[in-house]
Specification:
The protein is an alpha+beta fold. The protein is 16% helix and 27% strand. The strands form 4 sheets. Strands 3, 4, 5, 6, 7, 8, 9 and 10 form an 8-stranded mixed β-sheet that branches. Strands 1-2 form a two-stranded antiparallel sheet. It has a two-stranded antiparallel ribbon with strand order 11-12. GO terms for molecular function: calcium ion binding.
Amino acid sequence: MNESGFRVCVKELYETRYDPVSVNYAVLSDICKPGWSYFNGFCYFTSDTCADWTTAVTKCRQENSVLVDVINNEENVYIQHRHNGDKSWLGFNDRSFEGDFTWVDHGLGNFTAWAKNQPNNFKEEDCVHALGMKYSYEWNDVQCRDCHKFTCKKDLDECQHDLNYCHKLATCTNERGSYKCKCKAGYPGDGFDCYYSYAGLGYSAILANDDNYLGSLSSWLSPVVQSQSSYWKRCWRASVDGWAASTFHSLCDSKGPTVTIVRVGKYIFGG
């Protein structure tokens, strides 16, 4: 499928912890570099040969990635399926402080899947490997000089690769395994939906739909715009309705926030 520019994602749904009940297929464009596979916000590479734990860490760093950390059981099962049931290294270890297991290279997650009576530090075991499908996807501590295959894990930048759902008026900030959307200054919304707070003002004869004026107004008016459906509607125009202050108040009072736009010669101001 890679030669055609597509990849196939397979996701197993579990009725109990290990019993697959259905499989969903999705065909998507390949978004990780050749040799790497995408899963839930990350790209993964699995070695063909075994290495000791330290060498595995080094090889992953050379690829600007980390020896795999595990966030949840879904990822735990996915990683071990990549090794076809064989034992494989994880980035979990207690090399710094005995009994205090952490993920190498500041990996995240509090998930663990220790096998029964593990970890036991038998013969100075400071590194961790996954036992594979045969042993219910559980983990065991082993000596770091053992030789196992390994998987490297790299964050995919959804912002850079245009794989996010941020609105066109929002900025996208990449996070490890995810991203955040935030509407740009002057545009209310949650980042996934942003809108113009000056809707309706574009019909002003004075502003003449000038983007510079409207952009400044959008930022200034956003605190009083209550929802995406809010719309500015002209209630008074001096050249049509008259210049009397009483006319202005009779037409615009008690109708919510108002903005006044005035032009004197080449100058435009208001409040």
